[in-house]
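Appendix B: complex inputs.
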Amino acid sequence: MERARRYLWNAISVASLLALWYLGSVVASESIPGIAATLDALVVVLTTPGPYDHMFYYHVWKTAEMLFVSLAISMVAGTVVGVALGTNERLEGAVSSWIYAWLAVPSLVIVFVAAVLVGFNASSGYVAVPIVITPFVALNMWEGARNLDPQLAEMAEFFDAGRYQTFTEVIVPQLVPFLFASVRSALSIGWKITLLVEAFLVTRGVGFMFRRYFDQYDLTTMMSWLIIFVVFLVVIEYGVLAPLHERVTAWRPEADGVRVTE
Amino acid sequence: MTVAEKDEAETADSGEGQTLELRDIVKYYQKPGQGRVLVLDEIDLVVEEGSFVSLLGPSGCGKTTLMNVVSGLVEPNAGTMQRGGRDVSPDDLSLGYIFQEPRLLDWKTVAENIEFALEARDVPKSEWDERVGRYLDMVGLAEEGDNYPSRLSGGMKQRVAIARALAIEPEIMLMDEPFSSLDEITARDLRQELLDIWHRERKTVLFVTHDINEAVFLSDYIYMMSQSGEMFARRDVGIDRPRNYDDPEIAQRETELYREFHEHVVQ
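Resulting structure:
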């Protein structure tokens, strides 16, 4: 029942957005593309064959490739940095202000500097995107590591749990919420930076599509590309991240089938 | 090791004299601004095998620190520990620990929490099922093995912690105010059950508490500690078991011990 009501509200909010869009496209028809026109453009993008299979498939794949490789690099690097900061006070004192400085550097500057240093090609993207999103992951994991329960560590120590057992069964489960928060923020920031790289430096990917149709003042097609990628990210969230999150946190009391025994 | 020494060692092993003796234990911490803070001031402690021993004292008197010297979580600055007349380190002792909080892993089921300890102590996997079943049954939670701790009440969580400590089949159980965060009704039930288990399993228990009534009800004898980290008395309880909460003898003993505490603290 509760779930059905949530879906209902979700549907209502999507419908309101569409209504607002429609209204906008009628009132400001010269600057906001209509829904029908956008859908037509969407069909064209989805069905047009390109040099490498379907056009949309190729470009979305290229963007996803850069995004997820960068995400993987950042998750590893950010977790190492964050956990090191959260568990070592000396390191925290020495390095923590650098994290904030790192966060303050505009991503555009990082993309440009990477292009100058690495070259005006896709490789610079694989450098720039991880550099931009790693501090966000590090910040999250740092917070997570600071919140590790010393009492559980003491318990594990008393029962002589080894390093590996302590890490996998005591430490990692405590970091799970922070890992998911990190993936989500890194994904949402990372895809924006990936688009920036593609728009400025390369000739493939969703970012490049935006630039190409921007150059042609084709707002309608830009809109249809936006829809494709937003749908892609929503599918990642609801198809992969949310079910995975629910699975690994099944032990939480607010999960379905709660049985409080007294 | 000569033959004579070996004989002696074996006698000590098999004999009844497996008493744990701590002598002249000193522990201090360096605190910024305060210099050296003495927590344990040349403490002696004798834990006879099979007995129920309490460390009683106000908060912050160092009783948990003393117990952690036994458990090995705290390294003393001076002092010796012997068992059956031979020097031992905490690693040589067979210990179970029940903390003030249950300290369960919320992401593991009740059974998996016990298996965590079994795995850590290298108990062969083939024995896990039997041990988990036996000790959960002993604490009255035979049905809860597949449940998650977050769905249990505070008292039940502490029972799981007791089962976890028992499952590694220790000779000595260390208990650090295990019932102090429970409501009194639950705590009384658990104390009674603890005494049943202690009696049946023939364990030695070292029990830390600040509750005089609890110490009198449970213990064979009680060590009393003052806030300055000094152990000032050892008192036998001397009341026959099974004991009853309503027994006026318990109330009277409690009053006597309280008075003694009070006088010592005032002086």
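The first helix of chain A runs from residue 2 to 27.
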